[in-house]
Structures are given as structure tokens and as C-alpha cells.
Amino acid sequence: MTFTRIGLRAASALLAVTALTGIAQAQEITVYCDDIGFGCVTMAPIAKRFEAENPGTTIKLETVSYQTIVESLPVQLESGEGPDAAIITDLGGLSRYYLDLTPYVNVASFEKEYGQVLQWLRGADPSSKAINGMPTSLTVNGAYVNLALFEQAGVPVPKEGATWAEWAEATRKVSKATGTDFSMEMDRSGHRFASLAISYGAELVDDKGQPVIDKGLKDAIEQFVAWHKDGTMPMDLWGAVGGATHRELFSDFLNAKTVFYFGGSWTLSQMDKEVGDLFDWEVVPAPCGPSSCTVMPGGGALVGFKHTKNPELVGKFIDYVAQTKNNAEIIAASVEIPSSKSLIEGGVTYPGASERTQQSLSTFIAQIPKMAPAAYRFQGWRYQRAMMNAMTTRISQVLNGELDVDTALDRIKQDVDLAIKAAGSK
Amino acid sequence: MGFRSQTAEVAGGIIVLPARIIEPVMTGLQKFLGIKRMPWVFLLPNLLAVLLFSLLPVVVNVFYSFTGSDRLYPSERPFVGTSNYATLFDCGNYFDASSCASDLFWRAVGNSLIFVPVQVICMIGVALLAAVCLNREIKGRGFFRAVFFFPVMLSPVVVALTWQWILQRNGALNGILMTIGLEPVNWLVFPNTAFFWSVFVTVWAHMGFYTIILLAGLQSIPKDVYEAAKMDSATNWRAFTRITLPLLKPVLLVVFVLCVIRSVQTFDELYVLTGGGPGSATMLIVQYIYEVGFAVQPRNFGLAAAASILLGIVLLIFTALQLRLSRNSQNG
Where is each ABC transmembrane type-1 domain found (chain B) (predicted)? Predict the structure, then answer.
């Protein structure tokens, strides 16, 4: 009887200790990511492996829309809520919410692998040495061209170094000869337009972080409006939509309704899956403006947030994803351009991707050294999104005759100044 | 006798205990407050809910409209006086939006001033027509009543996306036009057609709700009035204008006010359908508030709050008007 009682007590104590230990070890973090490219789907196997290697931890990958990350997440963060970590694209704009991962990650490795991109996450503080996150993939703007239509029209494809104007001229000939709906299309996005603007000489932002409205921007807007007026570009994207709304019609390129589509590297996987060899296409080197042949860099970063209750787990997970082997696996699955130095130099094998897609990736990567300093400066600017939103809104108004180009330029400056004032800093 | 014994019976004696506690408390309260003040005790839970979820946000919003910065916490928001209102009202000429510092706000106000009356007139007209038709003895009446009400149950985003697929360049409507040999039209690219479809889509989406209210009003009109009119050889039109409309006036008034308030608040369908475009042709006030406060970064909560206060004042005027009209209607 006594023996049984002692046994029961011992068993109860053991159970209690086990339960308490379990409670102490059980940690869960939530990560917001979307389902395109380097996102929840491609990170899932790595997260599972991390959980297996770290018993008692749960990495909850929550798939949300890109709109949620752009519009809802900042409000959640401002109110001290939201996920523990997320893959974000407004790298500088959200900098004040980032957790400093320095105590939890391999700092030397992060500095070596991600160098310049880490600075984009540090916001307005150039002296900061914080590690705020892991840059996931680099994205590059660029143009997809329907070679089958060029061949059908008997028009030579412009060579590397061709200007925007030469591309417009050539694609107009092709669309006329083949009866294609439109010659050129560009996503309704300030980021895409910035490529054109910087290649026309626009600075967009100066070294002091102030908006720059110059002749380059004016020339680019005038050219862009002219293409819409003469039918080179459709009004559906920039003309038909208002406000800061992001819109794209990549389906037009997939359905061969446009000869030239200016989008970005993140749609390569979709292009590969949905078009493949149905028609002949390729990604072409960046068209040139009077100033440079640049496109905009971009990309996302997996960042942790200050309000998390499990900073160590957040840091540990991000460090795990950043390890070359894991990072390479996700990059390969998402068919994206790596942002880590060793993967850029060593190359990534994309199993399952067609030769055409591999070649397109090479073309995208080849644009990186040609990017103008203004493009990097604009990408890391805290008020980049304010300027991009102002450009989309105001250019659409010009296209609809509500503003002339000069007034639009004044309004862009005024919008960004108001945003800077609202943020309470100069 | 009734209440006490019923409670005991229904609850099998379990509720008797709290009743024994509550009763002396209530009796004590009644003695303390007096019988006239007792209703406030019963109203208190609801009053607290209204204070917490309706009045407090309004007060917070007013506070935000006088503060700056993109921070959310009140302690981090410096007082800027009437600067947000000054930004909104900084205009060379109020009839020319381009002369205003917040030109988009005034464009949105201008659009709303056209959109609201047009939409309300169309909405009430179509809903009344549908209600009159559905009130008649027609075949499949139940089916048609359901058909008119279905769009009300759809999410506004679903409504907008569905119509976007219909109206876009390669959409269903242009497909039909081309099948019958007509030229396709880019419906959402031109300001006038985009505005027309904005009204059409919002009317389509919400008319079912007003139709149901009007139908209930029509059914409450006694049939013998129409029979008497028929005996006097009154035409259908005369019966409609002399019997239906006057007797339906109180219901029409409610529908009118609800419709105006809903119309001023229009946002979701248009935001998805046109994003306020082309240019700013279909941008209404709520979209302006949303863009300034949430879509554009850094977020200008102060300016958005000031604009929403102004919108609130407009809605308050409409509500006061409704109270006045309904009082007049009751009086005479």
C-alpha cells in the first residue's frame, strides 16, 4: 500500500516535471508570407526541418495576400500587434519595428553574404550596425518580349543597348504587322516606372533623403504619356485605375496580347509554368534612356519584429533560413535571384526550370551591375513608397487630362513633402 | 406570483438563488434612486457599450484630427492644432479642385456630390419599380424576390471582381458585343462610362435590400383601398400616384435616408472595381480617407481623421434632416 502510494507520488511528480518542461520549451512564432516566389510555400519544408531539429518549437507560416503585407501589416505593427516575423518588401519604411537580431545570428556571415542590402533595412540611421533581417531574394525589373511575334512580323529584335524609344518603335511595327492588341505594357507600379525615370536621368531622391523633381522625371513622364496617347501602351493599367492601386496585366503577355511587357523577375516561374514553349519568348537586357540602362532593384526580407515574445526563436529561425544550404533550396524552389553573395557567385541550380527560364534568370542577374546609384538610393529610401504612390496617382491624372505634366510634378513633390511632414521628420 | 413561480418551475429551482440575491439589490437600488431613475439601471449595459464602441472612437478620432505624426499611440502624437483642417481647406477656389492643396480631397468631394444624388435616385427608382412588380401576382414571384436579394448577400469585393471580369477589355460584355458584330468598348477607361458603371454596380449590389423594405411597405397598404379605386375606374397610374406613393411615404423616407448614408459611405466596390480611376473620376470621400490613412506611406492618420470628421458632420446633417422630416411626416 505504502509502496503503491510512493510509486503514484513519484509518477505524478515525474509527469508534472515533464509537463512543466514541455510548457517551458514549447515556443511558437507566426511568420507572415505570401505564396509567390520566396514565400510560405517554398519556406515550408525548411520550417518543418527546423521544427524537427528544435523540438518544442512551432513555426507557423501564415499565408497572407501581398496587399495585407503592404497595407495591413504596418497598421498592426504600429499598434504593437501582428506576427513575430514576416517577409516584407518596404524594407526601409518599416525599419522602426524591426528586432535587432545581432545576438541570435551569425553576424559575420550576414555581413559577408548580404552586405549592402542590410543597409536598406536600417532605415534612416546610416551608423546602425544592427542586423534586422535576412534579405530573401533580389528582384529585378525587366522586360519580357514575345519573340514569336517579332519573327512573324519580320522585324529584328533590338540588340542590347537599344533605347526605350527604339523598343517602342520596333514593338509598334510588330503589333501593327501581327494585329497584336498592344506594343508595350508596364505594371501600374511606381517601382516599375522608377526604372524608366532613372534611365531618363531622374534622381528621385538626393543624398539628404529629400525628394528630387528634375528634368529626367519630367522627360520620362512626358514620354510615358505620349506612349499612352498614341496607343503604344494600353490605358487599362495606368489610365483606367486611380489612386495608389497596384495593378498588373501579365495575363496579356501570357496570352500574346502585347509584344513587350515590363514587369519583373518574380513572374519567371509563372511564365515557365503557364507558357513554357507555347511561344518563343525571352527576357531582354534593360532598355536604355538618355542617362543609363538601369532597372530598379528590389526584393524582400525576412525580418523579426520588436514586439515578439520569442526573440530568440525568431532570430534562430531567421539564422537557419539564411544558412546557404537552406537559402539555396528555397531560392531554387521559388525560381528567384538570390541575394546572398555566395549564391550569386556560386550560382544556383533550378531543378525543373526550363533552359529558357535559366537563361532569363541570367539576363536578369546581368542587369545588377548596370543599376544606377540612384536606383539603389531610391530603393533604400524611407519615403520610397510615398513617392511611388504619388507617381502612380499623378501620372494617371495626367493620362486622363486632369493635370498637365508640370502640375503633376509639383503635386508629386507636394505629396512626398506632406508624407515626410506626417512622419514628423525632415 | 407569476414571475417567481415560473422561474422556479422553468429552471428547476436553480435560478431561485440569484433571484433571491438580485431582488433585494434591485429593491435597495429602487429605494436609493427612486422609481424614475430605475430605467437607467437597466439601460446601463447598453449605454456602456455605446460609449465604448461608438462615442469613444469618435472622441479619439477628433483628438487624432488635431495631432500629427504617423504614430498610432496618442502619447506619441504631437498636437498640431487645426493644421490638418487647414491643409484640407487650403484652396484658391473651392470650385476648382486643382487650386487646392488637397486637390484629391476636393475631387473626391466633387465626385461624391454627383455620385450620391445620382445613385440615390437610381437606387430608389429601381428598387421601387422592382418592389411594385414583385408585389403583384406574377408567376415565380418567390424566385424573383430571391434573385433581387441575392447580390445583397455577396461580399462587395466579390461583386466588384465579378463586374471587373465583365467590364474589362477582354471581358464578358465585350465578348457579347463582338459576337453580335459590334466594336468592343473599354468601359473602365473613360471617365463617363466608368462613372456610369460605378453607379450601376452599386445599385445592382444593394437594391435588393431597399426592395425588401419597400415591398414590406407595399404589403402593409390595405387592399380595399385599391378595390375602392378600381370601382371608381381609377387607372393603375392614378392608383399608384394617389394611393401607393402617399401611403408609402414613411417607408420611402426611411429608404431615402438609409440610401443617402450608404451612398456617402460607398467605398469597397469602387476601390476594387476602379481604384478611384480613371484618374480620380470615381474617387469618393471614403476612398480618399482610406488612401491617406492606410494605403499611402507614411500614414497620415491626422489628415484622414480630419477628413472623416468632415464626412461625419455631413452624415449628421442628413440624420438631423431625416429626424426633422419624419417628425413633420408624423405631425401631418
Answer: 109-322
Are residues B26 and B128 part of one domain?
A: no
The stretches of chain B forming alpha helices (DSSP H) are 2-10, 16-33, 38-50, 56-65, 83-89, 103-135, 141-153, 156-167, 172-179, 191-219, 223-231, 236-239, 245-264, 268-273, 285-290, 301-331
ipTM of this complex prediction, to 2 decimal places: 0.82
Give B115→chain A minimum CA distance, Å. 16
Tell me the pTM.
Answer: 0.83
Position B130 in a domain: yes
Using omega within 30 degrees of 0 as the cis cutoff, is the peptide bond preceding A290 cis?
Answer: no
| Per-residue model confidence as pLDDT tens digits over A146-184 | 999 999 999 999 999 999 999 999 999 999 999 999 999
A78 vs chain B: nearest CA distance in angstroms?
6
B32 and B136 inside one domain: no
- Residues of chain B with pLDDT > 70, as a percent, come to 93
pLDDT digits (tens, 9 = 90+) for B74-128: 888 999 999 999 999 999 888 888 899 999 999 999 999 999 999 999 999 999 9
Give B83's DSSP letter. Answer: H
Name the closest residue on chain A to residue B297, using Cα atoms: A386
In a domain, B308, yes or no: no
B30 and B156 part of one domain: no
CB contact (8 A) between residue B300 and residue A419? yes
Question: Number of Cβ pairs closer than 8 Å across A and B?
Answer: 129
Contact B296 A242 (CB under 8 A): no
Work out the minimum CA distance from B279 to partner chain A, whole angstroms: 4
pLDDT in tens, B289-319: 999 988 877 889 999 999 999 999 988 887 8
Q: Which residues of B touch A253 (CB under 8 A)?
A: none
B117 and B229 share a domain?
Answer: yes
Contacts of B101 in chain A (CB under 8 A): 414
For A69, the closest chain B residue by CA position comes to B295
* B193 Cβ under 8 Å from any chain A Cβ: no
Cβ separation B296–A385 shorter than 8 A: yes
Do both B37 and B111 map to the same domain?
A: no
Q: Is residue B87 in a domain?
A: no
Query: What domain range includes position B49?
Result: 2-55
A236 contacts B279? CB cut-off 8 A: no
Of B38, B55, B72, which residue sits at a domain end? B55
CATH of the domain at B124: 1.10.3720.10
Smallest CA–CA distance, residue B166 to chain A, in Å, is 14
DSSP code string of B221-270:
S-HHHHHHHHHTT--HHHHIIIIIHHHHHHHHHHHHHHHHHHHHT--HHH
**Overall average pLDDT of the B57-63 stretch:** 94
The vertex-B182 CA angle with B180 and B183, nearest 5°, equals 145
Whether B141 maps to a domain, the answer reads yes
Asked whether the beta carbons of residue A402 and residue B189 sit closer than 8 angstroms, the reply is no
Count how many domains chain B has.
2
